[in-house]
Amino acid sequence: MLGLGTVYGDWASLTLSSFVFLALLTLASRYFLGSLKHIPGPFVAKFSSLPLFYQAWHGNRVFWIMEQHRRYGPVIRIAPDKVCVASSDGIKKIYGTKTAKSEAYSTFRYHDVKMCIGLLDVKSAHQRRKGLLPAFSRQNLVEMEPVIRGHLQSFLHWLQVFDRRNVPVDAFKWFRYLTFDVVADISFGQKIGMLDGDDSHFIQQVEYRNKRNSLNGPFPFILPVLRLLRSDTAKHWMEADEEIAKYAIRAKEGWSKSENQDRPRVDILARLEEARTLNPENGLSDKEIIAEMMEILNAGSDTTANTAMFACFELACRPEVQKALQQELHDAFPDPTEPLLLEKLERLPYLDGVCREGLRLHAPIPSYLERVAPPGGLEISGCFIPAGTKVGMQSYTNHRNPTVYPQPEEFIPDRWNGPTPEMKLNFLPFSAGPRACIGLNLANMQLRIHLGHIFRKYSVHCAEDTTRASMRHVEFFAIRPKSGTCNLYFRQIEQQEQKCV
Ligand code: HEM
Asked: What InterPro entries does UniProt report for this protein, alphabetically (predicted)?
């Protein structure tokens, strides 16, 4: 007679074998039968998201995807349900009006309230963007030039202090302080004073938040698993929202306390409040306003700061490029006491080229921005991508296409002297279409004002610990240098030299 143990043993092995068989069947069907089986890509990625997850976890996703494009071509499968495209003909199709954002963006929320970036369909995002865009229009921003220059003066003061002490400036931190102060002032009329306090708490919270969004968005199981394991990472990720919210709440309270007449201009909060008064049913709730403020403080400070920092690093590594920029600035503003007005700065071709090369090689959000293929699917580079497929592009790859940008890894500002239509089309630091960045004008303005002022007065070179290796990108939706610092010496050019660089 069979023992009870033998029966259980048989059942257990039968269950296990069935489980393994079913798992293998699922994997095989993903590989051989799925509607994406015609799309090339790494073998394992065809039936598992593990390679993508592994790379994302280590901040290497963007390099890994580019490498797969080199091996498999312009349309590739990077996970069982995800396709990445690297050809020009995909840009308008993927980032046009017909595609929605994928569920991965649902992570961009504060509690249960979605931020603009987290709204999936073009229609609801359009509604929200309508409230935000006027404050970021060029016309509105040009009036803010003195506000930007005011904060820049504090930044320049610190450069002087560091120069006198003969110590390097951690550009990673200090550019963030600057852009945070600018964006808080322009958007909410609030002087937060990061530049006064050397308070890196906010920066740390943004890092946590970026990491959470980049991982928990596409792989939503991560946060629950980390919480189950009682990991500190989960704790930091959860707390980051509340910490950033504190800055937004503080700014909103400050704004509410100030009387109308104390506000010299119509900022974004004024516009949102106005919309709420005129149309209480469609206006944003208090919580939605806080969520939007958090988004603006985060998206608006981190990105511009990164570009300015990487541009300074590139110039520090390339004395001839730095010299050419200083020469252009000197010729445009021969009198060192003359104010460097935006109107003139914007017309300087070399400065423009420096900003563009900074954005091309160090796009702050260089990664795969995921959309969902619309009903009827998409035909891109001769490849059919069925409806419902998650599909995206990464500016990182397009920005390094050698047929569009010869010598793609070189920082060549002159290449923007008469750019080809292909160069313009493939330049995607702010993404494209109806969900492109709303802060584009503010970012472009700041880059020209900041870099123009800095290189009119200063020469920049790297401290010993700042090297290509230490500045290698790590990507968690946004990029940062691997070392988490960027120590640069900013040396004031002597008055005599300022007259003739
Ligand atoms: C160099 C600076 C900047 C770069 C390179 C940049 C880049 C981007 C990119 C690539 C997106 C699209 C993200 C996606 O589709 O997933 C985006 C969206 C966005 N950006 Fe920026 N950004 C910059 C500065 C700013 C500033 C200064 C602000 C505001 C003050 C801002 C606010 C936003 C918002 C609200 C969105 C979401 C738009 C939507 O989903 O409809 N950004 N940005």
From this structure: Cyt_P450, Cyt_P450_CS, Cyt_P450_E_grp-I, Cyt_P450_sf, Cytochrome_P450_monoxygenase
